[in-house]
Amino acid sequence: MQWTAVKKRFQDKGYKPRLRECKDNRWLVQLIRDRRFKYHCPACGSTRLRIKRTYWAYARDEGIGTKTRIGILYPAVTAYCRGCAKLGTFRPPMIHKTAHATRRYMQFISEECQDQPANAVAEKYGHSVTTICEWDKHVLLNKLPPPNLDKLRILLVDEKAVRRRHHYVTVVMNGDTRELIFMKEGKKKETLLDFINRLSGRQKSRVQAVGMDRGGAYLAAVREGLPEADVVFDKFHLIQNMNRALDEIRRAEYMSAVKSKSPTARLIQGQRFNLFRLSENRSEAQSLRLQELLEANKNLSTAHLLCEQLRLLWDYRHKGYAERYLRDWVSWVEESELQPLIRFGKGLWRDRENILSYIRHEITTGPLEAFNGTIERVLRRACGMRDLEYLYLKIRQETVK
Q1: Whole-angstrom distance between the N-terminal and C-terminal Cα of the chain?
Q2: Host H or E run for residue 167
Q3: DSSP code for 147
Q4: How far apart are CA 159 and CA 192, in angstroms?
Q5: Which residues pair with 231 in a beta bridge?
Q6: pLDDT per residue over 251-276, tens digit each?
Q7: What CATH architecture does domain 154-228+364-399 belong to?
Q8: Which of 16, 161, 368, 393 fits as disulfide partner to 140, beta carbons 3.0 to 4.6 Å?
Q9: CA-based nearest residue to 73, from 134, 128, 27, 124
């Protein structure tokens, strides 16, 4: 039955299979060319060829049943085309010209790489990791469809660290479909403009909003390349910045308590993440400990209350009311005389247009943040990755399932 399946693979392809060797789970199949089969020049299609040399070559094929390793011994022909005056090597159509493997086998290896690390696949099938990655990349280049840029409405932009020593890439995602559509090394203005300049005028006009953090480089790129699109500063990045200001106050209060040998220092110690947590995420013990701290330290109590009140900004559904609330919040911060929050509040008021754009579009870069785990998983499977094009294809493979 297995040999019948092998013969069907090469049926009507100009070759006849012959079993050359059989050992345990390995087969060596020899292909004998049918003399009625004529080679065609891939450039001009002519059959007027002058054969220069014929030699036997080897390629791997996908296994069948219990025969997990199938090798193919086939005649490779070097011939000169009289039609276009080109010299070329002719092989069976199912065998890749440089990979020493059938296209079917390369597809099989690529599917294995989707669920297993590259080194595990290499060890299992007897190839080097480099070969496995090259085959996988080749299959993905031909398999994955190009990004659909005609229906772009929402763009999500962020930078991701993919290598040591702060090697960053700029990542762009379709905010509606969660599909990765662009990735390039660097996080400068020119990096994002490289993507924007690839869009046609009609495609640019369809983009309504771009979600990002408050990085100046990306903002300048969007202002230049997509002047009609709204910029939406990500609320989670803003809350992260707010927590950083709160943590600065916590450290200052702790150092002050240590210098004065106040018992409050013991209460402040170890409370960093407890201050950041939402009330519904705290356990009863954490809530009691936080309440004890806030009752003992006025500045931390004020700062924590102000931070909790800022979260209400994104609950508004009318821009005018939200702007009025933000103005009130900034005035409360100034009355508190807490410098880290004052600096943060001034920045919010300066960027209020881009912050309040959230009310209209309600987008965040949360889906892109989830990409951190995807990138780490892909890098682990591939045992590290220096080829950014291959990394882009592997991540894109995860988003177009």
Answers
A1: 34
A2: strand 167-174
A3: P
A4: 10
A5: 210
A6: 888 888 888 888 888 888 888 888 88
A7: 2-Layer Sandwich (3.30)
A8: 393
A9: 27
